[in-house]
């Protein structure tokens, strides 16, 4: 049980004990001689009771907010549990893609390249199952949340603020950007 939950429980118990004391005081007192004194004491006791109830309601609301916040944090942890592993795998994936772009000149190299392509596809499929998607870049409008501009160019074939070239792929995990795409943008 967390420290905050313990504190809230203790405050709730204290409020309950206060209410019980108020009730005991009402029944334990002997009848007063004056009706005015009784009404004053009764109004004081009612104020104490109201104060205790308000404290209890505030504690209850605080506890409900705490529970909702913890649930939201746990959902986010579960949703993005693989983020650190994926971040560690992305450089290896980049190296795989660079290796797959070599030019092949003999059959042994072609066979090796086919094996590497199979491993690369398996790795991509495993990442897709976890919710990883590559960020589309070339031909898209530059978005600073998804793309990191490292160069600018002037190319008549592309409109203004359009990504012309991608230097490094970017990836998203569900709706969170793990790594933005490094791109060249048309002015």
TrEMBL record:
Biological-process GO terms, alphabetical: protein folding
GO CC annotation: cytoplasm
Location within or outside the cell: Cytoplasm
Biased composition (Acidic residues): 20-41
Domain of life: Bacteria
Protein's UniProt keywords contain Chaperone: yes
Entries under Gene3D superfamilies matching the protein: 3.90.20.20, Head domain of nucleotide exchange factor GrpE (2.30.22.10)
Region of interest called Disordered, as start-end residue ranges on this chain: 1-49
Keywords: Chaperone, Cytoplasm, Stress response
Single GO MF descriptor: unfolded protein binding
Composition-biased stretches (Basic and acidic residues): 1-19
Subunit relationships: Homodimer.
Family: Belongs to the GrpE family.
Cited function: Participates actively in the response to hyperosmotic and heat shock by preventing the aggregation of stress-denatured proteins, in association with DnaK and GrpE. It is the nucleotide exchange factor for DnaK and may function as a thermosensor. Unfolded proteins bind initially to DnaJ; upon interaction with the DnaJ-bound protein, DnaK hydrolyzes its bound ATP, resulting in the formation of a stable complex. GrpE releases ADP from DnaK; ATP binding to DnaK triggers the release of the substrate protein, thus completing the reaction cycle.
Matches recorded under NCBIfam families: PRK14140.1
Name by which UniProt lists this protein: Protein GrpE
Organism: Rossellomorea aquimaris
Lineage, uppermost ranks: Bacteria, Bacillati, Bacillota, Bacilli, Bacillales
């Amino acid at each position: 049980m967390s420290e905050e939950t313990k504190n809230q429980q203790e405050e709730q118990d204290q409020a309950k004990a206060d209410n019980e004391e108020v009730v005991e005081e009402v029944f334990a007192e002997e009848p007063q001689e004056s009706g005015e004194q009784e009404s004053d004491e009764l109004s004081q006791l009612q104020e104490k009771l109201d104060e205790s109830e308000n404290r209890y309601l505030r504690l209850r609301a605080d506890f409900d907010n705490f529970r909702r916040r913890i649930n939201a944090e746990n959902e986010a942890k579960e949703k993005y549990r693989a983020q650190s592993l994926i971040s560690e795998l992305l450089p290896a994936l980049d190296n795989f893609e660079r290796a797959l772009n070599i030019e092949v000149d003999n059959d042994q190299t072609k066979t090796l390249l086919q094996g590497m392509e199979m491993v690369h596809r398996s790795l991509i499929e495993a990442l897709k199952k976890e919710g990883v998607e590559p960020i589309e870049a070339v031909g898209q409008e530059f978005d600073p949340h998804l793309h990191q501009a490292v160069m600018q160019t002037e190319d008549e074939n592309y409109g203004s603020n359009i990504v012309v070239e991608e230097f490094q792929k970017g990836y998203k995990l569900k709706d969170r950007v793990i790594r933005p795409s490094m791109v060249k943008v048309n002015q």
